[in-house]
Amino acid sequence: MDYRAAKQFILSKLRTELSDKLYYHGVHHTLDVLKMASEICSGEGVGGHELVLVKTAALFHDSGFVKNKHLGHEYEGCLIVRDVLPGYDYSSGDIDIICGMIMATKIPQTPANLLEEIICDADLDYLGRDDFYAIGDSLFDELQAYHIIEGEQAWNRLQVSFLTAHAFHTRTNKLLREPVKQRYLEELKGLVATY
């Protein structure tokens, strides 16, 4: 597996082909998920070959956005993975594992094993971090740009229902992120109650 070359390829593709309206799902999000996936792997005791697979899945998990559509981007990302990664000496078994991780991030998340749990938690790690509101604002701006949501009240109601339904999967994020996420949920519930 030539992880470094695959990383260079996909980051270059994302930088040149992603829409400039992807205020949330830009390269910065991919790099954040890569960083958090690596940190969660460390917390969960995942290393070696499996760590490389998780990092590869993190890099490719939103690559389907190069098609400039929100719905089905996970499936499109798997098509890219299956097309590109054999050229970087990834085995078909490894590619299946990577696609499993990418598909697990589809909302609602459906991880079936630890590696899928890690990528799901890395993808939504910001829900329990200090930059929650700043990152949320970028997602709101993106959803408005794509005419997926109308107005701030609808957005805050969506956030309340999303945070209520969401659960972190790994031991690491349950410990580190869940309590902070619950605080944001209570703040947003209070805000929505004023509408």
CATH architecture grouping? Orthogonal Bundle
CATH superfamily: Hypothetical protein af1432
CATH level 3 topology:
Hypothetical protein af1432
Overall spatial form = globular
Describe this protein with a few key phrases:
Hypothetical protein af1432, 67% helix, 195 residues, 10 helices, mainly alpha
Describe this structure in words.
- The protein is mainly alpha-helical and 195 residues long.
- The chain has one domain (3-192): Orthogonal Bundle (Hypothetical protein af1432).
- 67% of the residues lie in helices and 0% in strands.
- The chain has helices spanning 3-17, 27-44, 48-60, 73-84, 92-104, 114-123, 132-145, 151-165, 171-176, 178-192.
- The longest helix has 18 residues, at 27-44.
Task: Give the gist of this structure.
This protein is mainly α. Helices cover 67% and strands 0% of the residues.
Sequence-ordered SSE layout with sheet pairings:
Layout: H1 3-17, H2 27-44, H3 48-60, H4 73-84, H5 92-104, H6 114-123, H7 132-145, H8 151-165, H9 171-176, H10 178-192
Helix pairs in contact: 1-3, 2-3, 2-6, 3-5, 3-6, 4-5, 5-6, 8-10
